[in-house]
Batch of 3 targets.
Target 1
Amino acid sequence: MRDFRIAAFGLSFLLIFTISAAAQKKTTKKPAPKKPPATAPVKILPPLDVRAGREKVDIQLSNVTDFEEKLGVIAQGLEVADADARAGNLRPATAAKIRAKKAEIVEAIRNIKVGLGILESEFRVKPALQKYLPALEGISDLSAESEDLAIAGKFVAAKDPLREIGKKLTDALALLPL
């Protein structure tokens, strides 16, 4: 029995130190195998023709909206002054200034029409831009309509086709990739 006590005492002593040592030991987890780093999404640039086309659409949109705003300020007054000049209520010098201003506005619309025609034909000719053509189609016709209205002296009405052109250019800009 005595041997049994000594053996039990020795076994319990050994067990205490083993548990104590195991409690102090830090377990380290094996690191998970490293995954290849997720590649950042590569931004794909559209073809050069598309980027240049987008820039040209943006420029034409700016030209059209700026001109439309300027025309809006003077259109009503110009129509009234033109009616007065036709009625003979203005001095000849003032009437000449009105005619010159009208000619200046018609010339500005023609210049816008030329730029829009070039833009539309470029989208029609270049294969990379042809899929965006439906958004722009008809802008040169609308600019011709605006020019015709301005020549007829209907400057307020000449703004409406310009607004439609602005909408079409905005739609095309939304379709063209950055």
Note: The chain has a mean pLDDT of 87.
Target 2
Amino acid sequence: MLSSRTTIWLATGLVAGVLGACASGSGSQGMSRGPSRDATVVRVAAPPDTVMQRAWEVLRNDGVQPRWFSRAAEDTTNVARMESDWIYVPRVLDSATFGSLSEPEKYIKLLFWAEPERGGTLLYVDALYNPMSLPTEPVQWSLMRPVPGAHPAWQYVQLFGQNLVRRLEAGTSADSEKP
């Protein structure tokens, strides 16, 4: 499943962009754990800061509040991390079929890690949910689970990826026109 999502995103042709967002919040235990083995991995021909800024913009356009962003001042590797607020999937993807999903399963969090790679960035995207209860703050990370492959949230992740591609491509064409 991971390779098919990776292939879809790669085939979409992610291209360039740059992040000017600053660190905020006190941190996230979910982010400190790093990407899971279930994370979608995307290779992007842009620096991590650019990729993360465009991801921030796409979330905001979908009415989702990016909750936490981090890039340590002493970080010489240029790694950027971001966590979304809780996303109620029926609100951002009203065309999805939710069948027998319980109400808690309709809320997800997206976690992002952007790491430099030769010629661009590796963007890891984890979609998590708490199958036991409705969203809480602070997040009960020990209860969070990866969103199953057949979950409608992956449709939103795919749509998010397409919107991210458009943003990056728009940034590239606008940047190439500058003298």
Note: Confidence is low (pLDDT under 50) at residues 1-27, 173-179.
Target 3
Amino acid sequence: MPTSLRFLFLTSLLGAAACAAAHVLTFADIAFYPIYLFLPLLFLVWIFAVWQMRRVPRKNLISEIFGDVPRWMKVSSALLFAYVFINFFACIYLLDGGNPERMSDQRLVLKSKGKILRDLTPAEFRHAEAVQIRMLTGHLLVFFTLAGFIFHACWLKTGPAMANAKISSLDSV
């Protein structure tokens, strides 16, 4: 794998690992807010992912002559997309469609569109903050991982990865 592609691949995997760690912490009601710093990195990674995909000729994307995208990557991508939707709707359900906020009078509330849904205890507030971060980290985790899959697929469809490619239809002849 070329150095520039390897750097982008490793960056996306390290971003995914950091988001996975923050995601796991939310299940212990720990909201790791520094994960917001990964948002600009995600945008940069995806700009480069789209740029790399545009460099692969269109015919190479579906051709078996060039390295085939492994089945595990296709299945994992589908599962990740399913997880993003399940995680999003589960978090919305857990938050009753609102967001945890600390009011000016130091009350802890769950608020939606300017309306206070209910008052929260400190433990419930910590849990609601963790669920809110879980929603974000679930998305970040999935999109960093998918960017890593794109970089790997770009490597398979271009360069030296083609030398090891096998054509399934010619193997039977």
Note: Strands lie at 99-102, 108-112, 115-119.
